[in-house]
Design goal:
The structure is a homodimer. Chain A is α/β, with parallel strands linked by helices. The first copy, chain A, contains 12 helices and 20 strands. In chain A, the strands form 4 sheets. In chain A, strands 3, 7, 8, 9, 10, 19 and 20 form a 7-stranded mixed sheet that branches. In chain A, helix 5 crosses helix 6 and helix 8 packs across helix 9. The longest helix of chain A is centred in the middle third of the chain and has 15 residues. In chain A, 48% of the residues are buried. Strand 18 of chain A pairs antiparallel with strand 18 of chain B, so a sheet runs across the interface.
């Protein structure tokens, strides 16, 4: 292989042990040789998304995490509560690579022209195992970053942007014209707010503090509701009446939030109509796409029979959407990576730093403004 | 109008008062004159379906029902618990007719040939307000009962038969090949069992006692599970593995049953596959079509992201299905009214008897084998 590329490099791995614990470590792995249509990417940035944390820490109790290993090869171990142990029983003993997306420089390629033309370019990629120093992938999976967009800026060009566009496309596909979003002060929520402003889609953002209301309002959001206030239900009902939102994307999952949203939708829909014991016949939809609250979803069913609550994930949406629509979505993202689809980070971490208990406590909180990006090449070598 | 038809006749009415109570009574109403395309039906039988009880008693506390009125015009009054009062606030002060379906004899018609040809025939009808002595409806809405099928036998030819066929058609439309049914010892559940045997559709029937297991097994059911046993989850998982059922119709609604069904489906689907933290990508569906348990639906979300729980009702299904499919379904029902689509009743009640507290306690229980049929012409006159 080319000069300067080592034979072995570091990769972050997550292992659920048969002792009901998760162990996150750095392993030295062979740097792969690209096939004819493939490229080898020196990974320079990979964000820690909420969707990465589940695989990374398996729902472990991180307050009781312990540090081990050496300074160059730290190992962090944390116990799994019983529910997390049950939920991850199928992965016991499998050392898994982590990291949904990232960006870096193409340092070697296969013989095909589609691969060779990317040599030296900065590309963004998705597909798992991105918390690694070198990643080999099909050239077709690479998004070439526009001139002037570096790896850190382009590292999060897949998961959040495509999820946001997928939500908007799902809303349109299913005949809705406005939407509700929860945990809406997240990076993803701020991005959704920008897309909805661009596309003139009425958006109701549900957050959990006055500071988050201000954050989104300052970014031009019209309907931002704090679910911890006493007037929340009345405010939500009024906002739904005004926007006619009949679909919601919920990152919380547990508790009564989905049920409350459906109840407010139903109240807005049935206001002024004659009594029907089956409720309004307008379909109301909540899609749960996250698990910020792991407790059960409680549905009071005070919203008639024309409703549905279900899981929503990006990948099945993309499979349904097909290559042409995906390409159009990716082009839109690439055009606005530093504006509409920009991500912001609370900090950068080397692979070694990502395994320090203090750092874990900071980036695994899934609270607003705590998102970090891993810089796989910084300060660590396979030795 | 023709001889023998009175000017006024009795109709059962349900009223939610502003005192948080429901009042069920008999009112004398004008017997309507049929329009050109209409027929006047002397109602001879109308079943009390679970779907009627919600409108009839508004979720009242029937243990504390009190009898009033006169012997000929009894009135039964029952208090509404706070949740029921809230749920029915929109109908306070509206005296509502009740009864989804029934059958009787056409005693007068309009001038159109489509109406006149039904004179003297026994017909089955649906459309509300069937607990009445005379009901006027469009001729096109009448199902002429086959020779030898009387009104009592044909009275329940719409709600349960079309619901059962609607479930099977929904299963097929959405790409499933086997189904799970709860509260499966009901009249509807027994009918679904017969249809599934006829159509060779694998069916898992979930019931709540050993006696109900025997009832369905004696009727040829293969997979009948008692949810009160300790082995229920393991049995359900095994039955789902065997049948590949990925859709359920749930009449219970509240509690953890829907969640348990989804959990067993997911366990059956992911057995032997590599670990995925998002779960199986096969879609799992639970439709809630009843409210035997009014408590919240609790979803543990231990079943990945490819799932949906939603309301299901016959009417929206029929609107989607369209006239040609509805006609085919009705023809199938008419052909087998005394076999596949037969209903059985624990007893018959006149309108006056239907308002006696003892009778109400018996027919409003929604327990297996307690279904009654009202005979509107028996023992009461508008006076």
């Amino acid at each position: 292989m080319s000069d300067g590329i080592p034979a072995r490099a570091l990769q972050l791995r997550s292992l659920v042990t048969d002792q009901e614990a998760v162990q996150v470590s750095l392993e030295a792995v062979d740097v792969p040789e690209p096939g004819p249509d493939q490229v080898l990417i020196r990974m320079e940035a990979a964000p820690v998304n909420p969707s990465d944390l589940g695989l990374l820490f398996a729902g472990a109790d991180l307050i009781n995490a312990t540090a081990g290993g050496t300074a160059e090869r730290p190992v962090i171990t944390a116990p799994l509560p019983p529910a997390a142990a049950r939920a991850t029983a199928a992965r016991v003993g499998q050392s898994l690579p982590v990291g949904n997306e990232g960006a870096g420089t193409v340092v070697a390629t296969g013989s095909a022209e589609s691969a060779r033309r990317l040599l030296g370019k900065t590309v963004a990629v998705a597909g798992g195992g991105m918390y690694t120093q070198y990643r080999c992938l099909d050239a077709a999976a690479c998004l070439e970053l526009p001139d002037g967009v570096d790896a850190v800026t382009g590292a999060a060009s897949f998961v959040n942007p495509m999820t946001v566009l997928g939500m908007v496309e799902t809303m349109r596909d299913e005949g809705h014209t406005a939407l509700v979003h929860t945990a809406a002060a997240s990076n993803l929520g701020q991005m959704l707010n920008r897309v909805c402003i661009e596309d003139a889609i009425p958006l109701i953002s549900i957050v959990r503090s006055a500071a988050q209301v201000k954050l989104l309002t300052d970014q031009g959001a019209t309907h931002v509701l704090d679910s911890t206030t006493e007037t929340f239900m009345a405010d939500l009902r009024a906002a739904i009446s005004e926007t006619s939102a009949t679909i919601a994307f919920d990152a919380v999952g547990g508790g009564q939030l989905a049920s409350r949203i459906l109840t407010c939708m139903e109240a807005a829909l049935s206001a002024g109509n004659p009594y029907s014991r089956y409720g309004s016949d307008v379909h109301k939809q909540v899609y749960i796409y996250g698990t910020l609250d792991r407790s059960p979803t409680e549905l009071a069913r005070t919203f008639g029979f024309a409703w549905s609550v279900g899981g929503w994930l990006l990948t099945p949406f993309l499979i349904k959407a097909g290559p042409a629509r995906i390409a159009a979505m990716r082009e839109r993202v690439a055009r606005s990576l530093t504006t509409t689809f920009a991500s912001s980070y609370a900090g950068q971490l080397s692979l070694v730093q990502a395994l320090q208990p203090d750092a874990v406590a900071a980036y695994a909180r899934m609270a607003t403004g705590t998102k970090h990006v891993i810089i796989p090449h910084e300060g660590a070598a396979a030795g």
